[in-house]
Amino acid sequence: MDYYDKVQKTIDFIELHLTEDLSPNIIAEQTFFSMTHFYRIFRGLVGESVKEYIRKRRLSQSAIELLAGEKRIIEIAMEYGFESQETYSRAFTKQFGITPGRYRRDKDVIVLYEKANIDQYLNKKRANLSSLSVHTKVVYKKEFQVMGLQAMVLPGPGMITELWTAFNERWPEIECLSLSEDRLGICEYYPDITDENEFSYIACTEVVPSKQIPSGMISRRIPSSKYAVFSHQDSIQHLKDTYQFIYGVWLPESGYELAELDTIEYYEFKAGHSDCELGIYIPIK
Q1: Beta carbons of 149 and 194 less than 8 angstroms apart
Q2: Is 7 in a helix, a strand, or coil?
Q3: Engineered SS bond to 191: which of 7, 34, 81, 229, CB 3.0-4.6 Å?
Q4: What is the pLDDT of residues 232-264, one digit of tens each?
Q5: Does residue 182 carry a pLDDT above 70?
Q6: What pLDDT does residue 249 have?
Q7: Long-range contacts of 51-58 (CB under 8 A, 24+ apart)
C-alpha cells in the first residue's frame, strides 16, 4: 500500500476545497482508509492533526486575500469557514501574532503555513527522528484475557492518568491474575475516531479466564493477531515521538497494513527494578 501517494492525494484534495465543508468522512474517503487509520497516518506523516493542518492552511490562504484588499475581513472570515469576524481574528492572531486588520494595514511580514509536501516532510522527519532509540520486531500473539477499568477518554494524558491511578489502587482486588504483573493500556479500535473524539481506553492486566470480576471492572478477550512491537525507552513526555516514528516512518515503508484491532501499550515490570519498560503493540496484517 502506497501510504505516501494516498496522503499526498488527500492533501491535494484539501487544497482544492479549503473554502468548502471538509468533513472527516469526506477527507478519509480519499484514501480508502478507515477514519481512525487515516487520522493516525496523516498525523504521522505530516506532523499535524487533520483539523490543525486545515486550520493553518485556511488562515495562510486568507492572509493572501487580506493583502489583495478586495474583500471585507468578515467576508474572508466566512469564506474560510469561521463563524464570525471575532473568531477569525482570534485564530489569525494566535497563528501569526498580529490581527487581520493590522496585517492588512501595515503589510507586516508573516510566515505562512505552506501546503504539505510528503517527500519534503519525510526527509525532515527522518532527520528529526534519527536519534530515537526504538527497537522493532514483529510477533504473533495468541488470544488472551484482560481485566481492568474502562473509560471514555479524550486525547492527552489527563483522563488516562486518572484512570491508571484508579486501576493501580484496585489492582489487588483481581484474584485471577496471570503469572505476569505487566499492566496493559488498550486503545479500543473503532473505525470512526478522529483526533478530537473521545475513545475507549482500558487500564488492565492479563488474567486467566474467570467469572469473578470485581465491581466496576470489565473482562475482555483480546483476539489472536500479528503485531509490530516497538520499545519506547524514553520518558512518557516523548511518547508522541515514538508514535510519529511508527505511523510516519516505519509503517509506510514496512509493507504492512494496519489491522482493525486494538492498539496495546505493555508496561512490563521487572523484578528488582522500580521502572517499567513500555512496548507498543500495533496490530498489522
Answers
A1: no
A2: helix
A3: 34
A4: 877 777 788 888 889 988 888 888 999 999 999
A5: yes
A6: 85
A7: 51/194, 51/195, 51/196, 52/195, 53/14, 53/116, 54/14, 54/18, 54/22, 55/91, 56/95, 56/113, 57/14, 57/15, 57/18, 57/113, 57/115, 58/18, 58/19
What is the distance of C-alpha 254 from the center of its chain?
19
Measured CA to CA, the distance from residue 72 to residue 101 in angstroms comes to 10
Please state the rounded mean pLDDT for residues 174-195: 87
Q: Please give the Cα distance from 34 to 258 (Å, whole number).
A: 10
Q: Which domains does the chain have, with CATH numbers?
A: 3-106 (1.10.10.60), 134-284 (3.20.80.10)
List the one residue out of 226, 196, 200, 252 whose CA is nearest residue 41.
Answer: 252
Q: CA-to-CA distance for 144 and 124, rounded, in angstroms?
A: 40
Mean pLDDT lowest for which of 2-16, 111-125, 262-276?
Answer: 262-276
Exposed / middle / buried, residue 280 (Cβ in 10 Å: 0-12, 13-18, 19+): buried
Query: Among 243, 262, 259, 258, which Cα is nearest to 188's?
Result: 262
| pTM of the shown model | 0.82
Q: What is the pLDDT of residues 73-109, one digit of tens each?
A: 999 999 999 999 999 999 999 999 999 999 999 988 9
Q: Could you give the 3-state DSSP secondary structure of residue 117?
A: coil
| pLDDT level of residue 216 (50, 70, 90 thresholds) | very high
pLDDT of residue 180: 79
Cα–Cα distance for residue pair 34/28, rounded to 1 Å = 7
- Residue 254 one-letter amino acid: S
Please, where are the H alpha helices in the chain? 3-16, 24-28, 35-46, 50-68, 73-79, 85-96, 100-106, 118-129, 157-170, 239-245, 251-254
| CA R_g for the chain | 22
What is the grid cell recorded at 195?
Answer: 483526533
